[in-house]
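Re: the request from the purification team.
They wanted to know what the chain is likely to look like in 3D before they choose a buffer screen. I agreed to run a prediction and write the result into the notebook, where they can find it.
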Amino acid sequence: MSATARIRVGGAAPYDVVVGTGVAGELPALLAGARQVAVLHPPPLAGAAALLVSQLSAAGVERPCGIELPDGEGAKTAEVAARCWTELGRREFTRSDAVVGLGGGATTDLAGFVAATWLRGVRVVQVPTTLLGMVDAAVGGKTGINTAQGKNLVGAFYPPTDVLCDLDFLATLPRADLVSGLAEVVKAGFIADPTVLDLIESSPLAAVDPASPALAELVTRAIQVKADVVGEDLTEQGRREHLNYGHTLAHAIEKVERYTWRHGDAVSVGLVFAAELGVLAGRLDPGVARRHRSVLGLLGLPTSYRPDRWPELVEAMRVDKKSRGAALRFVVLDGLARPGVLADPDPAWLRAAYEKVLS
């Protein structure tokens, strides 16, 4: 087993994020004393969920069970949440019981939301199995579901009690999913930790190797960036908004594409767009904007989008969570690792930035 990192997330309800190989095995010890534990998982992880249920049973949990969810964003609906509530009610889950989210970001978002809303809050331990889940969705206590009007518009801020990022799961990911998750790592580099960018530029092949020490370091650094931010600003009243760098356009792309695009791919395009917007607003040096394309390109991430969707994207961005009234808000950079907010930008800048990311 390689070295294990423990990252503390502060705040009113502090918790640890454990990063390393084999760390999913710590779950039974974390949930000792619970009478019931529900492991929420997508179909491809039925085997891993069954193993965790068996380990929980051997550790003394009386009634551990698995609850299968739809794969991907299909899990994040009111109907799926209601089905989970029905199952918890049927099993008479109490506040001393716990929910586990085993899967990618959609699974951990849904599991966290179910835990936050059942009996107004039961314990949730997140076990992300994708790179995106590890560096983004499972850390920070944002939980939610999607609606026809947009992504994550219904949800709650509800921190987990623990997060176990078992790097062994990364070896099971399709390469496209692994690469997609690196967009959030790149984002962490541009908003807070430029060493991330240096590591990718020095060895892009190692960055996409699930067994490499380089990827383990990138994951740990990205989680540390998020932990530092959410520990002081859980409910996005200030600094946490910076974590949305690239996400305003990204969420709009996902909605317009009916969630058929990978989140990280959409974020990659959104990062390029945000960088170009920062240049047009006179806040970012063009060289830093070019570095966005370069680093993302080294990883094989997309940096362009379709030319025919601008009206739909603008409409989608207007219902983004960061909007205030009719005014759009974007996170932009004032320099490397210097994020800020651009409120109600000139529509001409938006269109011109979009022109920069057209296929």
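For the purification team: The radius of gyration is 20 Å.
Please add any questions underneath this entry.
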